[in-house]
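User: Need the bound-state model for hypoxanthine:
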Amino acid sequence: MSIHIEAAPGAIAEAILLPGDPLRAKFIAENYLEKPEQFNRVRNMFGYTGTYKGKRVSVMGTGMGMPSHSIYVHELLQDYKVKKLIRVGTCGSLQADVKIRDVILATAASTNSNVNRIRFSGMDYAPAADFGLLETAWRLSQEKNLPARAGTIISSDMFYTEDPDEWKLWAKFGVLGVEMETAELYTIAAKFRAQALAILTVSDSLVTHEATKADEREKTFRAMAELGLETIIAD
Ligand code: HPA
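Assistant: Bound-state model below.
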């Protein structure tokens, strides 16, 4: 048991998929895992462990934004000794050639958050994906003919920004998408010498203002969850 997770010692697998939404964690457990057992109900941040193609895998929600994500990932690493973490989430596209429903493998994450400035006494840290997981996910995405891109993203502390054009600065520097968690995932995983990767589907475009519909979101979410699970068992 840790402060925010009620799981018994050993109840969480070494490899875990991390959607933001706890109901997505339930969906993955019910649709992809054999014999899933629920290990967390605290704050309705549902977590489950089962097997996928014979390998023990967990899945748990982390909430929205870096503070919530950080608490769960920190406890998974420190108290439950998790070694492989794959975030499966959504992002907004910042580039005209990154279309809704595309998949982004986040090679590294910039951020407008002050968390790492605080952590590193004003200096900058470069939060980056684990190369092994990235390489495996990239290869599998090519084999599955998924419309995948590998590149950088920005993890933002704000969804509703005061300046509606703020994203354009990041776009100018080649950043593919915006979401709200990955910079913190990559930073803490590195501290604990764990492997981490964010696989994101593009749910909306800040360039064209298009957004995916609910049924499309379910389909793209399934493809992303399958890619995450296959990456875990292949790596
Ligand atoms: N901004 C921040 N996070 C997001 C977005 C966005 O437009 N879309 C999906 N996650």
